[in-house]
Amino acid sequence: MKTLQTTSLKPFHTFGIEVDAKQIIEAHSAADFMSIWRDHADEPKLILGEGSNLLFCQSYDGIVVLNRLKGISVEETSTAWRLHVAGGENWHELVRWTIEQNMPGLENLALIPGLVGSAPIQNIGAYGVELNEYCEYVDVLMLDTGDISRMTAEECEFGYRDSVFKGRLKNKAVIVAVGLLLPKVWVPMIGYGALSDLAHQSDLTALDVFTKVCEIRNEKLPNPTIVGNAGSFFKNPVVAKSLADSLEAQNDKMPRFMVSDNQVKLAAGWLIDQCGLKGFRVGGAAVHDKQALVLTNLEGASADDVVALAKHVVDTVQAKFGVELEHEVRFMGATDETTLEAVCQH
Ligand code: FAD
Ligand code: EPU
Q: Where in the cell is the protein located (predicted)?
């Protein structure tokens, strides 16, 4: 365990906003987490990975605990590689390492920022693949008892950008390790948009897919070490088929994906783009000019700038399309998680 000298959260979240915590402590073991929870029983506490899915709406009036649990082990069976990965390992470095070791499977999920222990929380997904397809189990440290228990993927209740860790287990459990199962029979997943070009390539390898995914992402998404952001700010909304049909009647190029017989997922980035909001600014915050679903800290943005920009985007899309956008980015208030709606009411 290590208490940092600094209380600035700016280097510890990818939006790069000037906010502080009361104290920032690194946890290097499950025992560290338990001591912190015991020693600071009456203080608010926030577990932080790389802060790539968070907006601090104001300074945090409590203890921020940085996950520093490390270690990877691999078991090879006749049909698969089974990886046990500590929660504090970096996700993209893990993906890169598996590809280098000729253990394909995770290539579509390359370049997603953040830690392995955070990946199950919103069931990270990209280019037609979601974590749950490779996740065998999640080990959690229960903060009330100190017990570590193993949850099957089914028990994690994975959904689109969702899991039990955003619901029933929120603030109750630390994800200390994730078990991944990578089958030896590799099936490339290249059905998604720009990846479909790869279908023409003979002798396609997981490294080719990995390289292509990195290329597309580097083109569209701002690098958070240069321009602050937290990836897609909003989820892609799931709407009634009847609404999707009437919107499509006005614009036959509208991207849409069937979710069930009467539900359709729309592309929030397309909706925002159609409102002409690419590049739109409030103070130092801006809608990214290459991907309208990403809000950026272009130039010394305050949290208020980002909140005002997010509100403007939600209101504009609602007025034009009658579609309600829900933020994917987790909003943190002074002591607890909050929402755009709640922040705007103050
Ligand atoms: P943090 O932001 O630090 O934490 C997220 C939440 O989880 C917080 O509420 C935190 O308290 C909680 N938490 C963190 N660790 C633990 C733990 N061990 N136990 C319990 N609770 C914990 N996401 C995608 O799904 N697909 C993408 O393609 C994608 N692209 C992105 C691109 C960019 C440029 C950026 C900046 C983000 C992107 N994201 C994407 C979002 C983000 O990378 C993921 O949500 C990632 O899993 C967050 O990891 P983190 O370690 O930064 O989590
Ligand atoms: N589009 C536009 N204009 C824009 C942005 C998008 O017209 O400004 C259109 C695209 O042309 C495409 C559609 O909208 O037809 C979807 O765009 P894209 O393929 O870029 O994906 P997305 O739906 O915007 C989602 C995830 C990303 C993930 C990508 C790739 C969500 C909320 N976002 O974005 O995840 O990387 O697909 O799979 O589901 C994240 O969660 O932080 C994230 C970056």
A: Cytoplasm
